[in-house]
Amino acid sequence: MATYVVVGGVAGGATAAARLRRLSEHAKIIVLERGPYVSFANCGLPYAIGGAIRNREALLVSTPEKRETEFNLDVRTRHEAIGIRPSEHEVDMHNLESESIYAIAYDKLLLSPGAKPFAPPVPGIDLPGVLALRTIPDMDRIKEHIQQAKVQEAIVVGGGFIGLEMAENLRHLGLKVATIELLPQVMTALDFEMAAMLHDELVDNGVGLLLNDGLARIEQIGDRLEAITASGRRESGDMVLLALGVRPESDLARDASLALGPRGHIIVDERMRTSSRDIYAVGDAVQTYHRINGKPCAIPLAGPANRQARVAADNMAGRDSAYPGTVGTSIVKVFGRTAACTGANSDMLTRESIPFLSHMVHAHDHVTYYPGATPMTIKLLFSPEGGKLLGAQVVGANGVDRTIGVLATALASEMSVFDLQELELAYAPPYGAAKDPVNIAGFAAGNRLIGDSQVVTWEQLRDNGHDYGVLDVRTEPEWELGHIDGAVHISQEEIRERIAELDPSKTWVSVCKVGRRAYVMERILRHKGLRAATLAGGWNTYTAATRSVTSVEPGMTNSSSDSFEPGHGILRPQKLESPATDIIVELDACGLQCPGPIMAVYQRMQTLEPGAVLQVSATDPGFRRDVAAWCERTGNTLLGIETDDGRIVTRLQKGSPSQAAVSFPAPVANAKTMVVFSGELDRALAAFVSTNGAAAMGQQVTMFFTFWGLNVLRRRDAPPGSQEPDRAHARLDAPEGGRPAQALQAQHGRTRHGHDQGGHAQQAHRLSASAHGQGARAGRASHRLPDVDGYDGHQGRGARRGS
Ligand code: FAD
Does 363 contact ligand 1 (Cβ within 6 A)? Predict the structure, then answer.
């Protein structure tokens, strides 16, 4: 009769022990667990702190007694394995209750000791009130501290999964929460612009967010704690929660001379066998292989731990089973949004010099005519040759789990973006769309690959704005609410009449709110012989990403700075006040995307009397900011905003006409504004010529000079003309991983030639535009992550579970 000893009785250990029993009824199976519980739901701990899980017992998926009865296991809690002697096939045990030490013999040994929270070696780390979360006793300690110390303000250090989950759950308890993150973004498994949506969500839900600044020390000031950052910023609170990543519990393995990886993880082969023949290891303590680059990686997640446990048990019991490696599929809830990813992110592919392209699409979890549709953003990373899927990221309110599940399956099956187009996924109005978001992502990525569309990313536009002309195709109200400096505003309806205004020597980057209308415009421009591209993710992505980038210098993100409480940096959601009026009109704008909600508000407000209150529900996450800006500009009053799992509810009170600071497109006949963006003399002169022409026709004309335009007037010497070299088009379709895509370059060349010929005749009438205004260039701080492995806990880009 074989004796199997399992060290660690939670995710990996408990699964392996149960599997071993299913494979062998006669084996002796001993499970050693240092803590008081086995098989508990550590993933549920943040929610038990926040109150979403009310019953503490629900966290105990199983008990030692149940395990013994159901599986005939010998479960020994409060027993710590303190040594392994591989040559003697023995484990030394410490009974933590009786304090006795003894040895047990094994035929096969499985190690699943997990990983412990990383505590950085900074002064004050041991102060009372500085806590971390891994086990049920940790959870009890945190809850007790919150009650006994009457905690009102908490500082969460670390913006990985556990840090984010804790920030949300502590907010649910009504605490003020500030999160400190060393890197310029939370959730390093996501690309920056995807994580930026979480920055917004955190701030919108009252979490102060301090990015790009690490914890330097903690001080006790009276009965309060102060976290002091590397930049010298001080955040004070009643509790500090460390969520800085985990370190493998591999001392036992090290002492037994088992081979360890560079970061201390136990090295295993695909059968989960360690360097010692009869010892296997699984879970957070081991390093396996990443399926995208085939290199060693450690991904501390429950799914891999469970599947590895099954493979190890099979091999221990004499079966032949192999673990294929991991792709790090993971998901996290951050208030009303969910973020998920699978496979490689841009950072990993760039580091590994794997050529790739990426594409972002915005879709809805189900058709918008069925109530409750919420938007989601999908980013695909794929090979420039053949479109093989390399990674995927999804951020949205609902349906993210289903979408990432499909994409993870596609990735593991080595599908291409063209295969995504063909996937036949279930659809009925409450659940999806005839063109599923995954299909749409496949279509868009495929379009890019076959050259129907080219994209410029927010970073390319930010860093090389002078290479492009920016064409904003959104509606007038959307444009009014904010736009990229230097952009030309021409809607889709007008483009055929106004195409001559676009300088054919430029590559025109078409911008709408999320990218869909911009793609249509890109196609029109290309058919008209212009070089065109689409801004990936549109205005939404551009603003979310550049807003966060500009705040990476030490300091709180201030995407809604006026709503921040001075000195604390925390945005509090405003509660809906009861308006002093009986007239409340309801408007359901849920499911509407892009300009939809704000247009609906605009139209409905026009029908109301001053003082009336409009209550609007919407699901487009951008609406929260749009409506605030809209009220500010139109003299209406925002009474309050509440969010509830992806639904935004606002109340607006209509102001009197005299209060309106700026109104929406006023129907002034023949009124025109000439915007001079260019610092080039010929273009500025062309603007004067056009202005004079319009004035001569009896039109009311205003000239508006941007920073660059003003430079033309200010200069003593002659400004340059517009014959600038075209630097843009060679860069446009270079794979983001590095290598240029030859075929696409060739196509660019042809297009350019074509439109150049037609372009010169129109030059004199052209109002020049360039996207290198201040806004487009703001915040050049690079978001590229330093290759860290350590203190911040992100364990390199392979490790997903950042805390
Ligand atoms: P564990 O489940 O941690 O089990 C290891 C056990 O070994 C521990 O109980 C420890 O006491 C015991 N042990 C260690 N050394 C010894 C010794 N010498 N002798 C005896 N016993 C020993 N993953 C997800 O995929 N999704 C999530 O949402 C998620 N949420 C999480 C939330 C929290 C708060 C935490 C802490 C983790 C979360 N994880 C999540 C990660 C997931 O829980 C781990 O990846 C998984 O539990 C790893 O399994 P494991 O068996 O390797 O280690």
Answer: no
Give the strand pairing for 286-289 and 266-267: parallel
Q: Is the CB of 114 under 6 A from ligand 1?
A: yes
Contact 388, 349 (CB under 8 A): no
Are 14 and 68 within 8 A, CB to CB? no
Considering Cα of 462, then 466, then 472, then 477, what sign does the dihedral take? Answer: positive
Alpha carbon distance 176, 570 (integer Å): 8
For residue 663, give both structure tokens. Answer: 């109104």
Q: How far is CA 147 from CA 49, 132, 237, 411, in A?
A: 11, 16, 14, 46
The tally of CA atoms less than 13 A away on the side-chain side of residue 272 is 36
Whose CA is closest to atom 18 on ligand 1?
A: 81
Return the closest-CA partner of residue 772 out of 706, 684, 687, 703: 706
Residues 6+ positions from 109 with CB-CB distance below 8 Å: 4, 5, 6, 7, 84, 89, 91, 278, 279, 280
DSSP per-residue string spanning 709-731? HHHHHH-SSPPP-S-----HHHH
Check pocket membership of 300 for ligand 1, CB cut-off 6 A.
Answer: yes
Q: Is 793 in the pocket of ligand 1 (CB under 6 A)?
A: no
pLDDT, tens digit (0-9, with 9 covering 90-100), for 686-721: 778 777 766 655 567 777 776 566 666 766 666 555
| Three-class secondary structure of residue 158 per DSSP | coil
Q: What is the pLDDT of residues 127-186, one digit of tens each?
A: 999 999 999 999 999 999 999 999 999 999 999 999 999 999 999 999 999 999 999 999
If you measure from the C-alpha of residue 803 to the centroid of ligand 1, how many angstroms do you get, rounded to a whole number? Answer: 12
* Ligand 1 centroid to residue 378 C-alpha, Å: 30
* Per-residue buried b or exposed e for 38-77, using 16+ beta carbons within 10 Å of the residue's own CB: bbbbbebbbbbbbeebeeeeebeebbbeebeeebebbbbb
Active-site residue identified among 43, 341, 590, 631? 43
What distance in Å separates the CA atoms of residue 686 and residue 194, rounded to the nearest whole number? 41
Written as six digits, the tokens of 190 are 């996501």
- How far, in Å, from the CA of 250 to the mean position of ligand 1? 13
Strand partners of residue 343: 391
Distances (CA, A) of 702 to 466, 667, 668: 25, 16, 13
User: How high is the mean pLDDT of the chain?
Assistant: 82
Per-residue pLDDT at 546: 78
- Distance between CA 6 and CA 330 in Å, rounded? 27
Which residue has 């920055």 as its token pair?
199
- The finding on whether 45 has its CB within 6 A of some atom of ligand 1 is yes
Helical (H) or strand (E) element with 202: helix 192-204
Q: Is the CB of 163 under 6 A from ligand 1?
A: no
For 79-94, letters b (16+ CB in 10 Å) and e give bbbeebebeebbbebb
Ligand 1: distance of its center to the CA of 197 in Å?
29
pLDDT at 421 exceeding the cut of 70: yes
The arithmetic mean of pLDDT across residues 624-642, rounded, is: 81
Atom of ligand 1 nearest to the CA of 301: 45
Pocket mutation for ligand 1, best pick of 5, 42, 53, 104 (most atoms within 8 Å of C-beta): 42
Asked if 594 is an active-site residue, the reply is: no
Q: Residue 87 contacts by C-beta under 8 Å, 6 or more apart in sequence?
A: none
Residue 536 Cβ < 6 Å to ligand 1: no
What pLDDT shows up at residue 639? 85
Please tell me if the CB atom of residue 302 comes closer than 6 angstroms to any atom of ligand 1.
yes
Q: In which element (H, E) is residue 181 found?
A: none
CA 723 and chain centroid, separation: 40
- 3 state DSSP class of 777: helix
Q: Which atom of ligand 1 is nearest to the CA of 32?
A: 20
- Ligand 1: residue whose CA is nearest its atom 15: 113
